[in-house]
Amino acid sequence: MLFMRSSPMVIADVLISGLLLMEMTIVGLGFRFGGADGLRMDYYLMTCPFAEQIVKTTVNSALQEDPTLAAGLIRMHFHDCFIEGCDGSVLINSTKDNTAERDSPANLSLRGYEIIDDAKEEIEQQCPGVVSCADIVAMAARDAVFWAGGPVYDIPKGRKDGRRSRIEDTINLPAPTLNASQLIDMFGKRGFTAQEMVALSGAHTLGVARCSSFKQRLNDADPSMDASFAKTLSRTCSGGDNAEQPLDPTRTTFDNAYYWALQAKAGVLFSDQSLFTGPRTSGVVNGYAMNQAMFFFDFQRAMIKMGNLDVKEGSKGEVRSNCHRVN
Ligand code: HEM
Ligand SMILES: *[C@@H]1O[C@H](CO)[C@@H](O)[C@H](O)[C@H]1NC(C)=O
Ligand SMILES: *[C@@H]1O[C@H](CO)[C@@H](O)[C@H](O)[C@H]1NC(C)=O
């Protein structure tokens, strides 16, 4: 097919695949790129110059109202990217023929959908059919990090929205019962180093977990958990499965207190605490606990990388007009 046509498009295609190959080789050699091949920092410069600003304004005013939603937005981007790539699949509603990701028990109380909807609505008014829901989720997460006191960073844009969202795919999300070596494996399959995985886990500097996510730790004495902290968790769980426990002592501030908590054996999730217990990750935890700037630097790099996971470009996806359903 490629060789039967001879339009300039074909030449461009060949050139692009050449570049692609080259990039893959270079990436293989360990170089880092700002974005997946077709993503660009200035992707919407000509087609929707205010998109970025609209997202930021929407996020800021929503977080002013409810600071706890910063956590929701960051987690939403993570779940989006880890299932089927960063393609907005996390936003799709179930239909009568299909149960979508968001109705999985693993949607685990995702929050912040309204913020994405508000931003999308305003953007559609200015430039209909241009800005993908996946990009809005990615930008919103980035803005939430900064709003909560974390690092400022730019992300490449140009993700297209996917057409698949299935409950069974959520099996690819890490469970809070995994230990450090299992987390290393799981993130390793997505191309992350152990250090990047520890940095990304630092997102747990924001937000809460519900009792159902950690109560299994309370059954038998867990030597990796501080005894008085175990009592705190038990007290939380006396409020039922949905009772919330902050993941670190400063739940709306993006800082490195999460790593201090792990050092103090006061990590809420088993998976979190295992980063401090695990021989291959404890050094990284100690490093970030000591040096917040290093955590911030690694975190933003790892977030940019996560935002490039299996991105759909060109005709591999679409720009949904309503984030909740495929066009
Ligand atoms: C390392 C593997 C990870 C595991 C096992 C994990 C698991 C969990 C669990 C069980 C919760 C609590 C859910 C609930 O009880 O409602 C949670 C919350 C959260 N996770 Fe993770 N997570 C991981 C990595 C990440 C990453 C990479 C990010 C983002 C970059 C992230 C962001 C968040 C945020 C912000 C919250 C709080 C949500 C809120 O307060 O609404 N997590 N995570
Ligand atoms: C998450 O899934 C449950 C079913 O497991 C569903 O009742 C709930 O509405 C979903 N939450 C969101 C925000 O979609
Ligand atoms: C992690 O869990 C796996 C599976 O249960 C187990 O085989 C492995 O030994 C555990 N690793 C550590 C360091 O505890």
From TrEMBL:
It catalyses: 2 a phenolic donor + H2O2 = 2 a phenolic radical donor + 2 H2O. Coiled coil: none annotated. One of its GO terms (biological process) is response to oxidative stress. Its cofactor is Ca(2+); heme b. The keyword Calcium applies. The active site is at residue 79. This is Peroxidase.
